[in-house]
């Protein structure tokens, strides 16, 4: 018997003033989450009921896909992470600690190394492969900017799964099964999402797909078209549309541009269009533990450098914008006055493909307060390598021939083909069909479990509160006797609770001795799919049913309530499928 007076649901009239995201605001106000410290949250009873339902959906779909659940420790010895090279590469996001014997550990942000170690020591033959294992576990990442409530925190629950195969066919089989399982999971949870091409980041590998839920507060930019193309901004490409300029190369000249530190300021000072300015950005690429190399990246002034594309092209562990000291050391000037003319061989120069068609460009002169005009490739400066190093822009033509559009999205899932990167470093080998020792070929699969709550709330909440799909709502029906002091209303509420519970529905009864307005406002905040109000017509055996999502209300006889609830919940489920 679920009575609201006995459950911890600390609703609030107002959210804290620093709350930005709708999901954050409503989950705090509705008493779902409580902040312990920055980026660290408690999940109160209603939120935990939602999480358990999400977990159950995940387990059912992973079972269908032939994956097996297990559990790894969150506290991991640092040796494995040093073997894989990620102990330093993961950077400040990695929690590092020591025990009383000064042995080094990390708090797991993800578990590629640990799963690889277990499979390395447990599987010796291809006959046991492919194999997919996963866990549902809290992860720890020292985010520098925790924000939007549980959307980006320092501790969060995640599904992380891993496939192990003896050959590419086994990897493909596991990858496709997981991709389908993920689609099933997000469909059942009630999310609208796009499957997009993505970058693998610090995890590594290729053939990476991201499941992203469009939402205003999403920190990822989804690049998509009406033709079906979809990619993360880091990965997106467009058809090259540059036209070779035909002007004759003019004499290189150096001009004073006092106070011009940006492309727009330089363009104004020189009286030229920003597209004719050569944007020059100096980076330091980490190629090894103590090996940092300067890289100058060139592109049109109105384009933005895509650091992920540059990182992937260089194959470096990390890429950072050079400090002013490094800029002065390698180029002799400060950012805002940098350029490629006269740059020595110790600095690698990359240029975007669109730079190749430009003639008589303006660029920083590597002398503070000065720019060159009429700079040309080969005559005045070298380019070591051309490539696609820019962010695409809205309106450009995607590879599928349709115009590019942008929307924000929340990353809710990610799948990778890892290959043999971890198995090689950690010695995870099996005997193949021919009796040869081969490295296990891995796949990696992740879902942000607690993050899904934010994504669903962002897509469904309104100005009155949360609106949960029935598949993961904390309860199916919210029963509200208008006046809990009236015996006949409470008796009817208890009878209805019994009827609905026996029919398999989860019911919350608001038995609090509060004003009706308070109960209704809290009900809207909590966001249970259906509300049954017991009021003036209780004596006639009639109640009011309100659909939280649409606000529709209908009067129903108590004897018909169970059937009505079933019909309405099915309609909501069908509508959710149609809305995708």
Automatic annotation (TrEMBL):
The primary location reported for this protein is cytoplasm
Record keywords = Aminoacyl-tRNA synthetase, ATP-binding, Cytoplasm, Ligase, Nucleotide-binding, Protein biosynthesis
Q: Which GO terms describe its biological process?
A: prolyl-tRNA aminoacylation
Q: Does the keyword ATP-binding apply?
A: yes
The UniProt entry, under SUPFAM superfamilies, shows: Class II aaRS ABD-related (SSF52954), Class II aaRS and biotin synthetases (SSF55681), YbaK/ProRS associated domain (SSF55826)
Q: Name one Pfam family in it.
A: tRNA-synt_2b
The record's top EC class is ligase
Q: Where can this protein be found?
A: Cytoplasm
Indicate the segments forming the Aminoacyl-transfer RNA synthetases class-II family profile domain, all copies.
48-469
* Quaternary structure (record): Homodimer.
Show the NCBIfam families listed in the entry: PRK09194.1, proS_fam_II
Query: What's noted about domains in the record?
Result: Consists of three domains: the N-terminal catalytic domain, the editing domain and the C-terminal anticodon-binding domain.
Protein name, please? Proline--tRNA ligase
Upper lineage ranks?
Bacteria, Bacillati, Bacillota, Bacilli, Lactobacillales
